């Protein structure tokens, strides 16, 4: 008999907490004052039932007025450096948190402090050398009478060449392109133009 009454009581408690939590979030955009009331009731119900919420849920709203914390809108967060005394023990320094998170509610002005995470510093990564991709210059074919398609350009090769060698390759490619264009203009056009076509009619 007692087990069923306990189960019923816990079921009623969870239903009440769920309703207050969802109502507080639903009414946040429509009526912020009513949302604060629901979240304040949610916190009071937790203390009444002697329950403790998880850290993310406990830090979700202001402990004083119940305002849902949204940084930048109704909530201000600041990182305060923690002043620590010099200790001889190096291990204690590594595991000790070095800063505090100061949370300020803009609705009631209540401030609360939270400890920062205790994480070791990561070692600095060694800068890797950048890989330069040099593309081979595309040379225009000098013989325009052939109908075969030009061969595909070779795939780009990954090299660590210097800037001066890349500039030299680009200059050579430009010279070759200019030579090919000049040779095209100098050759007579054997295919015939518009005048030849009209005279044949």
UniProtKB/TrEMBL annotation:
<dbReference type="InterPro" id="IPR007175">
    <property type="entry name" value="Rpr2/Snm1/Rpp21"/>
</dbReference>
<keyword id="KW-0862">Zinc</keyword>
<dbReference type="GO" id="GO:0005655">
    <property type="term" value="C:nucleolar ribonuclease P complex"/>
</dbReference>
<feature type="compositionally biased region" description="Pro residues">
    <location>
        <begin position="148"/>
        <end position="157"/>
    </location>
</feature>
<dbReference type="Pfam" id="PF04032">
    <property type="entry name" value="Rpr2"/>
</dbReference>
<comment type="similarity">
    <text>Belongs to the eukaryotic/archaeal RNase P protein component 4 family.</text>
</comment>
<feature type="compositionally biased region" description="Basic residues">
    <location>
        <begin position="167"/>
        <end position="177"/>
    </location>
</feature>
<dbReference type="GO" id="GO:0046872">
    <property type="term" value="F:metal ion binding"/>
</dbReference>
<dbReference type="GO" id="GO:0008033">
    <property type="term" value="P:tRNA processing"/>
</dbReference>
<keyword id="KW-0819">tRNA processing</keyword>
<keyword id="KW-0479">Metal-binding</keyword>
<feature type="region of interest" description="Disordered">
    <location>
        <begin position="142"/>
        <end position="201"/>
    </location>
</feature>
<protein>
    <recommendedName>
        <fullName>Rpr2-domain-containing protein</fullName>
    </recommendedName>
</protein>
